[in-house]
Amino acid sequence: MTSKTFVVDDYTDLLALQRVFREAKFCTEPDDADVSDSPIVASMFERLIATLMAYEIERDGTEAEKRWIHWLMIDESRDEWDAALRRARTDQRWMVFTAEERAKYVAILLSPFRAPPNVVERFVLAVNTPDRV
């Protein structure tokens, strides 16, 4: 019988898996566009990051925590921002989403990165203003 559990507990494997998630979710020319806005993928990626954070914080202490907090804050300077922006601009649902639905959608698109309300607002503005650099 096949196991119903998949465990990755080796640090190097976790890092490789993080790279795979990042590449799939924020690919500039996705083969499967549904990956980037999947709540399931977003949740799995967040759990993976939490595991990596816990591992590195246990190993390196507060410096690791600071590095992760810094890395997880997203803004317009990140490639992931651009990839998520392209995805939002091509989603036909964007124009019919309510403000609340847009905020939830942006959180999924940008996951596992942290987007406080002011960052979400800037993202929404960027989606709605396609000629904006």
Tell me what the structure shows:
There is one protein chain. This protein has about 130 residues and is mostly helical. The protein is about 65% helix and about 0% strand. The protein has helices at about 10-25, 40-60, 60-70, 80-90, 100-110, 115-130. The radius of gyration is 16 Å and the shape is globular.
Helix content: 55-70%
Q: How many β-strands, per DSSP?
A: 0
Give the strand content: under 5%
> What is the CA-atom radius of gyration, in angstroms?
16 Å
The separation of the N and C termini measures 54 Å
User: What's the mean pLDDT score?
Assistant: 93
> Low-confidence parts, pLDDT < 50 over ≥5 residues?
none
Instruction: State the order of secondary-structure elements, H for helix, E for strand.
Output: HHHHHH
Shape: globular
Biggest beta sheet summary: none
- Helix/strand/pairing category: mainly alpha
Number of H/I helices: 6
Summarize the structure.
By secondary structure, the chain is an all-alpha fold. The chain has 6 helices and no strands.
Secondary-structure blueprint of this entry?
Blueprint: H1 11-25, H2 39-60, H3 62-72, H4 79-90, H5 99-110, H6 117-128
Helix pairs in contact: 1-2, 2-3, 4-6, 5-6
What attributes does this structure have?
133 residues, mainly alpha, 6 helices, globular
